[in-house]
Specification:
about 450 residues; mainly alpha; 3-stranded antiparallel sheet; 17 helices; binds acetyl coenzyme *A
Amino acid sequence: MGRDTLSVVDNRTGSSYELPIEHGCIRATDLGKIKVDDQDVGLRSYDPASGNTAACKSRITYIDGDAGVLRYRGYDIEELAERSSYLEVAYLIVKGELPTASHFAMWRHNIKMHTLVHENVKRFVEGFRYDAHPMGLLVGTVGALSTFYPEAKNIHDEESRRMQTRRLVGKIPTIAAMAYRHSRGLPFVLPDNELSYSGNFLSMLFKMTELKYRPDPVLEHALDLLFILHADHEQNCSSTAARVVGSSLADPYSVVAAAAAALSGPRHGGANEDVVRMLREIGSVDEIPALIKEVKSGERRLMGFGHRVYKNYDPRARIIKQLAYQVFEVTGKNPIIDVALELERIALEDDYFHSRRLYPNVDFYSGIIYEAMGFPLEMFPVLFAIARTSGWVAQWAEMLQDEEQRIVRPRQIYLGAAERRYVPLDQRPEVGPLEFELRGPL
Ligand code: ACO
């Protein structure tokens, strides 16, 4: 028996097997060797929602969920938050190392070369209804970019990958800002490449008739910091979507659109919208016990709490909580912060949350800051998507260069009907009530 092996005895046959253990994992395909007889397809593992399955080897982001540690390419999130900028972190995530001064200058230049979008994209955005959720608009528009750059399908060409990466990182704030301006009936604002990545985004959002928009430095820094904190988070739902869609060798715009669609759900990037809705609904600290009661009875979830990986305080939530007060110095205090703080205090003392190791996640405080900065709720997941684009493209490129990766194609346990014969329509007995649909809005 080797030290780094798992010995398995199959009680059905009495056979024993030695499965190698590497990086704390056995290979699920090794289970396939465990068979009752030659006709058997072999043992498979069942892991709905991939709770205990590593789907890839990655060098991008490290999380220790028990200790509350997050690192991009080996650098602690706290240090990056304090000392870096989003564009530098995006470089680090995409390319693997922090840039030298000249490489960083070139990266910034290259991203800025791509902040404009084709005029047809503008017309495309205008086709959405005025009340279209900006996340739906973003998903649709990013997906549509693949039709503007057909060469993007050359995914094995490194230069093409670099070009689409710059385009995506460069254009996503422009499309996000267009989504916001469209919902407000405001004219689109051209990018201002003299400003920083976050400053330019604020300009494209909030510039009115002034000749030059000058972002408030505190808000510009706060947004940049929020982008750093959201840039990557290893194999989360949306990055997994990026890898799965990318595994079919789809182009990177389709990949990022799919990832953004995954992000939009309330269990993922849509949670920050729901946190603010929940805090507004609570309204005052007196109402918190009633909410906690509903949560504990399983009627609803405490939004912004809990995480599949963190079983400790999410380090990003800690940084964001401190940032909130810097932002309030400029914007005035968002009164729902008091409700949030008290809710956190009560929840962390409660055995329900304690025993399940439910702590505030990144989204518990981010929405409060976004709201104070003047963003409507619907824009919150869009802000998340801007930041996460660098993570998605890095995960996608890593997947493409990993020789072990193939098209993702999980197995299933079939529990449906056994083989049966087709019965002609007029011979089938009636079952259940009929579903009649009245014509709704077109
Ligand atoms: N409020 C109340 N109870 C919760 C919460 C919550 N927010 N989260 C988990 N639980 C409970 C579950 O009811 C379950 O209890 P049980 O064992 O008695 O059935 C237990 O904790 C485990 O929950 P799971 O759903 O199995 O945990 P999972 O890892 O699948 O879910 C998730 C993680 C989706 C983040 C979950 O905690 C949740 O829904 N949180 C609220 C939404 C949210 O904030 N999402 C943002 C995540 S961070 C991000 O995407 C950037």
